[in-house]
Specification:
Elements lengths: L1 E5 L6 H7 L9 E5 L11 E3 L3 E3 L3 E4 L6 E8 L3 E13 L2 E5 L2 E2 L1 H8 L7 H5 L4 E5 L2 E5 L1 E4 L5 E3 L8 E6 L2 H18 L3 E7 H7 L17 E6 L2 E5 L2 E5 L3 E8 L22 H28 L9 H18 L3 E8 L2 H8 L1 H21 L3 E7 L2 E7 L3 H17 L1 E2 L3 E2 L2 E7 L6 H17 L5 E3 L1
Parallel strand pairs: 1-2, 15-16, 25-26
Antiparallel strand pairs: 1-5, 2-17, 3-4, 6-19, 7-8, 7-14, 8-9, 8-13, 10-11, 10-14, 12-13, 15-19, 17-18, 20-22, 20-25, 21-22, 23-24
């Protein structure tokens, strides 16, 4: 199914969702019509059956017993720099990135002004993000007074997005790779839907650089569009700043293959200055993000045990209790203390004491890494705290018993075997985190008082 649709000034999300309901073995591709003035919403389509329409879609079904089609999309735009989180969006209006006005990303990192040239200045720098499991480009067409951006299509919230960059050599290399794939299909005709932004990017003198080479494979025709559509797997996706190419033929592949002729000497083997700078920025960004990740981790992590420190595990408990009050989620606390630990330090020295603490920490970290609903932290000295989310107190006690047994089996070089006492409690409705912490501490005290190396539930 090939189509051309009027789409300016409205969201195409529902259109794509309904088109996705068509059986998956049917290829779907097309584009959005636009006026000679790309900023104008006054567009129209035409069919021989129904004439002109200012709002609508023209479908052209193609088929036959031996009809074959192979459709693909080519961008060539590459991600640049840091990752942003879409924190607020309303349809095609992108409101916030990382809880800041979306326009700030273009002004801060690219010095693009919010003026009449905004659209043209951002053509080379659309957003790239994952949608239905594939990379999608989304281009802004206007920056609004409140710092939001009007995009060419809807943007999802709570997804990661990056600014992408367009570099002629990188784009042409992507086109060459796509052309080689199309050549192997050996089509008899090729239809191309190319984003008008790409036409603006290349300029009138060079616009055919990425489309004309397909003529060497088969007769090629198509449109410049305000948005491109292609089915990939189940979903029909709307693209921007993209080439959608549909290669078609009837019957088997011919014996003779046509070559994909492209003037590769213009870009082959070369790396442009833009590409070099982008690679440098990418590497520097990754190093900075890794450094920030380690720094953030060090703030919430206990240096010796690599568990959460007391401040962080306490924060998680308080946060979980607040959530518990709203969602009625089961929460449990497990508090542990190594028995007779002072005698280890006094008799065998602090290095042996550190070995004992680290051995218990390793067990607790293994438990928390196996289940993301469990958080483990060092409460202080030889005391530790576990937070269990959405489990019963019986389940938490069972996990605590497994920890007690495993630690008791550990053998140390000087102090041989050690044990641990454990308190367990379930957080009650409407109680505070402090109250729950006091009760689990009392449970631990009871375990110590009644003989150690045991579990007490309160």
């Amino acid at each position: 199914i090939e189509f051309l649709v009027t789409m300016r000034g409205r969201s195409m999300t529902n259109f794509c969702e309904r088109m996705s309901e068509i059986p998956e073995d049917i290829a779907i591709f097309g584009g959005g019509a636009f006026a000679p003035d790309i900023n104008s919403d006054e567009v129209s389509i035409y069919s021989s059956s129904h004439g002109y329409a200012h709002r609508g879609v023209v479908f052209m079904p193609l088929g036959g017993d031996d009809f074959c089609v192979d459709a693909m999309c080519i961008t060539g735009w590459k991600p640049l720099g840091r990752v942003f989180r879409v924190t607020a969006a309303d349809g095609c209006v992108l409101k916030e990135l990382d809880n800041k006005p979306a326009y700030d990303a273009y002004y801060k990192y690219l010095n693009i002004q919010n003026d009449e040239n905004f659209f043209y200045n951002t053509l080379e720098f659309p957003f790239l993000y994952q949608h239905h499991g594939m990379d999608i480009l989304r281009a802004p067409i206007a920056s609004n007074a409140d710092g939001s951006l009007t995009m060419t299509s809807d943007m999802d919230e709570d997804v990661n997005a990056r600014i992408a960059y367009g570099d002629p050599w990188t784009i042409l290399e992507s086109v060459h790779q796509g052309g080689e794939k199309i050549r192997k299909f050996q089509p008899e005709v090729i239809h191309i839907y190319s984003c008008a932004a790409r036409k603006t990017f290349w300029g009138a003198d060079e616009v055919s650089k990425e489309t004309f080479p397909f003529q060497s494979i088969a007769p090629t025709s198509g449109f410049f569009t305000s948005g491109e559509f292609l089915r990939t797997g189940k979903y029909v996706n709307q693209h921007n700043v993209t080439l959608v190419i549909a290669a078609m033929r009837e019957g088997e592949r011919p014996c003779k293959q046509e070559d994909f002729i492209m003037q590769k000497e213009n870009f082959s083997g070369k790396v442009s200055m833009i590409n070099r700078l982008a690679t440098f920025i990418e590497a520097a960004t990754e190093e900075l993000e890794e450094a920030n990740r380690k720094l953030a981790l060090s703030v919430v992590t206990d240096g010796m045990t690599q568990l959460l420190n007391r401040s962080e595990i306490n924060r998680k408990i308080r946060e979980a209790v607040k959530y518990h009050a709203k969602k009625k989620e089961n929460l449990c606390l497990v508090m542990l203390d190594i028995d007779n630990f002072k005698s280890v330090n006094d008799t065998y020295g602090h290095k042996e004491g550190d070995r004992v603490i680290i051995a218990l920490s390793d067990i607790l970290r293994e438990v928390s890494e196996q289940d993301e609903a469990i958080s483990a932290g060092r409460w202080g000295g030889e005391e530790f705290m576990l937070l269990f989310k959405n489990v019963s107190v019986e389940h938490a006690a069972e996990a605590a018993e497994n920890i007690r047994k495993k630690f008791a089996e550990a053998k140390f070089e000087k102090s041989e075997n050690k044990t641990v006492s454990i308190g367990v409690t379930a957080i009650q409705e409407k109680e505070t985190a402090d109250t729950a912490c006091i009760r689990v501490d009392n449970a631990l005290y009871q375990a110590k008082k009644t003989g150690k190396n045991r579990i007490v539930i309160l």
